[in-house]
Amino acid sequence: MRRSILASALLLCVSMPLQAASPTTIPDAALTTAATLRQQALADDTGWKITESLTTEVGPRLAGSQADARAVAWAQAKFKELGFDKVWTEPVTFPRWERRSEHAQVLGEHAQSLVVTALGGSAGGTIEGEIVRFPDLAALQAAPAGSLTGKIAFVDFQMHKKRDGGDYRYGGGIRGRGPSEAIKKGAIGFLMRSAGTTPHRVVNTGMTRYEEGLTPIPAAAMSIPDADQLERLLALGPVKVRLALDCGWDGEATSYNVIGEITGRSKPKEIVLTGGHLDSWDLGTGAIDDAAGVGIAMAAAHLVAQQHPARTLRVVAFANEEQGLYGGRAYAKAHASEIKQHVIAAESDFGAGHVYAFNSNAPASAKGAIEAIAGALKPLDVAYTPDQGDPESDIGAMAQLGMTWAWLGHDGTDYFDLHHNADDTLDKIDPKDLAQNVAAYAVFLYLASEAKGDFGSAPKAAGSEKGAH
Amino acid sequence: MRRSILASALLLCVSMPLQAASPTTIPDAALTTAATLRQQALADDTGWKITESLTTEVGPRLAGSQADARAVAWAQAKFKELGFDKVWTEPVTFPRWERRSEHAQVLGEHAQSLVVTALGGSAGGTIEGEIVRFPDLAALQAAPAGSLTGKIAFVDFQMHKKRDGGDYRYGGGIRGRGPSEAIKKGAIGFLMRSAGTTPHRVVNTGMTRYEEGLTPIPAAAMSIPDADQLERLLALGPVKVRLALDCGWDGEATSYNVIGEITGRSKPKEIVLTGGHLDSWDLGTGAIDDAAGVGIAMAAAHLVAQQHPARTLRVVAFANEEQGLYGGRAYAKAHASEIKQHVIAAESDFGAGHVYAFNSNAPASAKGAIEAIAGALKPLDVAYTPDQGDPESDIGAMAQLGMTWAWLGHDGTDYFDLHHNADDTLDKIDPKDLAQNVAAYAVFLYLASEAKGDFGSAPKAAGSEKGAH
Lengths: 469, 469
Description:
- Two copies of one chain form a homodimer.
- In chain A, strands 1, 2, 3, 4, 5, 6, 7, 8, 9, 10 and 11 form an eleven-stranded mixed β-sheet that branches. Chain A has a three-stranded mixed β-sheet with strand order 13-12-14, with helices on one face.
- Chain A has two domains: 28-85 and 263-450, Aminopeptidase (3-Layer(aba) Sandwich), CATH 3.40.630.10; 101-250, Glucose Oxidase, domain 1, CATH 3.50.30.30.
- Chain A contains twelve helices and 14 strands.
- The first copy, chain A, has 469 residues and is of the alpha/beta class.
- The longest helix of chain A has 20 residues, at 431-450.
- Chain A has helices at residues 5-14, 28-42, 46-58, 66-81, 137-142, 168-184, 224-236, 287-305, 326-334, 367-377, 396-401, 431-450; strands at 86-106, 112-114, 116-118, 125-134, 152-155, 189-193, 219-222, 240-262, 267-277, 311-318, 342-347, 355-360, 383-384, 406-410.
- Chain A is elongated and about 75 Å long.
- In chain A, α6 (168-184) links the parallel β5 (152-155) and β6 (189-193).
- The first copy, chain A, starts with a helix and ends in a 19-residue tail after the last helix.
- Chains A and B meet through α3, α4 and α7 of A and α3, α4 and α7 of B.
């Protein structure tokens, strides 16, 4: 999941680090080695095998579940198997949410089932009410207070496919804030058209958040064909729906950020950070979200390790990204005093589509190095896009503290066909795209590790953390 | 559903009617009118509107369910609304099967859910057993007796896309006969890779039949990604699965063939028959299977009615095709003495893909008329294919009794992406293809109605009914 599209513009503005003293450069020898790595990676299936292993042997791994614990063990074992010389875990604690069952049914003369899934964090319960349709969140917000008393709000916004996944700002916004807005108008339940783009009858889940002081109501998404059907039924007259969700919070859970390191040959205390998140939603096997990210990061660092990079490569398999960036925030809390040592970071959490763009918020002093990395990425059909990008999800909190980020932008055209739904399975990943992803990360990790001079990571004043998730 | 692929070759051999006395011809004026009808139909959305109405207002309509009863009322009302001058029902009685819930779970160190659906007619129950994989039905049949005692048979055959849907003979065969074969080897449960071609996590249901004398076991299909996953897990070692199906038989139900007629202007007692089936499986809204068939037949007859055809057009919305051709068999029983009056028949039960082929089993005496109809279909990009085709599902029983059939072959390349699964919804139909389908049927119905001479329908000796379903 990529939560930070909204935040990216903000980060570009507020998180530009102070300029470093002298220009950072990439040695020519490193560029030559990077070209070799690039070719090696394109012919290598390590990324695929890691992704296959996680999605098969663990499968779905909802944060706090037994499968999540198995994923933590898997990640430790996989780091060791891949030759990472330091492997450890750091605890991440969060409230546990569980999905048990979910049903929705149109009542009355057109009685029929609807394919729905509870939003993460939804309250459980069974309700029956008349549907009131809103084309988007603004329309729901504009409804008079009390106008939905005893009714079910239905926000019927259709996301469209975009390379940068831009429509997710609307779809994700409806999911996050829609239920609270519905409660404020008196609604007893909330339904939304899936925040996705697939025409198949699978439903995109994802977290919702009830504003403090509101009494949570059952909140679910329905598949796009079901939303179309509900729209047609509403055109025939009033529609009453029964929504039955068995789900909810169940105490507290502790999971772990799993960390593997390839110690640097000459600057072991300087870290080039990468990673993905280890947890997934429960409906699919979390292949594009985010086994692929874990696979890309592990495989790229593993390949680069053969070249004995100068700086340490650190790969983090972050815990519980999906329910609120818990792993990324815990990491930032634990490593807040080490911003400068985190020379630069790039996370992969936007699927396994072709990496088409590269950028970093490194300061002008590092521009030469960034452009050199961009040049080494160009043969992979990656463009340098100095006005785009963001630090992805889990490294956002560290970026807020002043860590410099780089961005390797995946083509997200088809990402929301799969994101958070049952179709997020291994077969949806193109092995060639995944190898290109690994190649791009390997080039980045190696060159960032070999760069002479830094990328401007430096602690920022406290209180600038807003906008990170 | 098209159950009769296997039977088609047989029918071509055994059901050739006796030759009629004099050549049957199509008047030139009728061909001119057919050209007009063809153009009208391509620009007309009546077929779409009917299909939309049935899939929306009724939705899924499992035979014997409350929704099935609503579908019967819907069809009667729709015939009247479309100006059919005679509308009636004929009862069809059958055992009622219900699906209530279905779950499957890999147990042990790789614990995870599998997306499954009970096969129609499956026994309910919860079982746990080790998976034994077979690549196809023959391999299961070749297993030693008793070799599956306490285990779950998994038949892992993948259908491939074909224009004529030819792989369904294997996929459908596994579904129909696999559970019985598994029981004979001692299995306590049966799983199969979906008899379908979709890479999405929706599962194709459909009837299975337990051989007499065997004690039924729970039998389910799993989605293709889940079958892939199970295959990968089996490569890691033994896999134990819990299969929990709540489903089963619940007494007897009566539904109805719903029949609408446009009385012929000059030969009212001679019938040109068409139709589709009214029931559907419960997972989708039965759009391509077979609301489209009902929509095509109703719309084509409605359009032709404006030309006051010579013979009577009869459209049958058949009851309970899915669970054993009950409607088609009841129709044949009720109308067995009227074979000769059923001049020719063509049913639409293979989706709403482009009609690409035409054929009939009419005798040589009617070849001129059949070729003339083929000529009138050619501008719709329909080829005359004298060695292909069959009478489709519901008219098979009448064809066995001697009724001449025609075949308008739909492109089934994508049919098994949707057939019997949750994705069989209105949005999957291309309105342009549907209009072409209506145009093809309208041309056929009109010209068959205006033909001078018959198409060879004549009662056959009793006992030749085998092979019809």
